From TrEMBL:
It is found in: Cell membrane. This is Drug resistance transporter, EmrB/QacA subfamily. Residues 28-515 form the Major facilitator superfamily (MFS) profile domain. The chain crosses the membrane at residues 61-82, 94-113, 119-140, 152-170, 182-201, 213-233, 245-262, 282-304, 316-335, 347-366, 372-391, 412-436, 489-508.
Amino acid sequence: MHGSMPPAGFTASETGTTASEKRQALLVLICTSAPSFMLQLDANIVSVSLPAIGHSLNASFAGIEWVITAYMLSFASFLMPAGALADRFGRKRLLIIGLSIFTFASLLCGAAPDLPVLIAARALQGAGAAMQLSSALATLSHAFQGEARARAFAFWGSVVGIGITSGPVVGGLITQAFGWEWAFYVNLPIGIALIALIVKVIQTSRDPGAVRLDLPGVASFSGALFLTTLALIEGNHRGWTDRWIVAELLGALVLFGLFIIAERQQARPMLDLSYFRKPTYLGANLAQLSFSAGMLTMLTFIPIFLQNGLGNPSAVAGLMMLPMVIPLFIVPRIVSAHLAYRLSGRALLTIGLFLVCFGLFWFAAVVRELSYASMIGGMLLTGTGAGFLNGETTKVGMTVIPKERSGMASGVSGTVRFSGLVIGIAAFGAVLYSGVADSVRRALPDANTSDALKLVQDITAGQLAGTTLPGHDVAAVHTLAAASFASGYQWLFVAGGVFMLLSTLLTWRLVRAAETPPVPATLKGQPT
């Protein structure tokens, strides 16, 4: 089941394996990919359901934000420790525990009578999500080796793509037909079925060298990532010079310093910093961070533009995203079936990053037209680039790490991916705000400062139709609001494109083609 496991799709006559072994391999793929699908689907469903949750629980917008924030903080804080726990106590055990916690927390979320209970349940759900993601990726990396691993991560990337694709549509349908509670209850049957399957299918694996838990590392890293995530989430609202934000960032810096000191003194550290001396590993994690910050954040920003900038309802906006999200499902399969035999991991990563970069510059060139048709080309480019990256970033990063440390590697991969998402939303959100503010300031140089600030905040939040400014014609203010909104998005897309261009160049420079060779040509043409 480990290094000898056959790649999915091979016939018994071609590999000497039996139909039973092929079936076992497919079941392992399902057990390790489905938890990631659940996380992606759940994140998108809950985001769509937030307005209904706020109305049902009589909560303010600031309060409802904590439904997302509590989950993000818990998830970020536990990802790396969860990888260490998986190596120490067994990946199968942590996968079952994490999935059980996530499923039980989903029940609590759906049954929550008020906002505080829902927020607490979401924090618990985030901890379970971190455990199941780290242990699932570690199990996948351990169970498949060589060319089989490339196919396995392509399968994983396709499944995650399905979650991204279906999340907004499924979320809207569930909330409208059954109520927001079912955005959480939908996890129950899936979670229970997966737990039963994992118990039967997955073999136990762990790192034999992990004889004790790195408690100083766990405590310092979790605390540092918690404070960093909290500061990034609140920074755009409170202001980056706010004393609490400054204190959180300084506290995170101190804890990161203590974490590095603690890891240098550990015989078996939670995070082996020596791996970051490997250029390929460093480049793969840079690509992972860039993919998340520069591409996955756009799955949040662009639907807002389609709804508020182009005036489409949420259901229509979800369908408009299909040119961008469908390639996330299709392209990993194409890469695995045809390109993985010809191109190195280095080439695949840089092609993916450059396509996303090109797509973002396309958006920047056409966004002021406020036309959906002109955006389709950019959607196809970014979606195709994301399809190259979705499984490849994780696979390349884990290629240069010994399989007994796959729990640590998966924890790093998940943490980098999530951190990129939080950093991207905070950074590009600030760019969007600055772009809107610059446009308003140029158009209304003599406007009252407080009135102009309120106008900028309304435009950035997407409240274009209801914007007003004392002493100005309503129609003219609405026209200004639309133009400023588009200008802010142009700033955002330009910043994203420049960021992805730099990431493309650095990834090509760091990742070694010799360490990420193409899949052996003898396997060319076999189905995935």
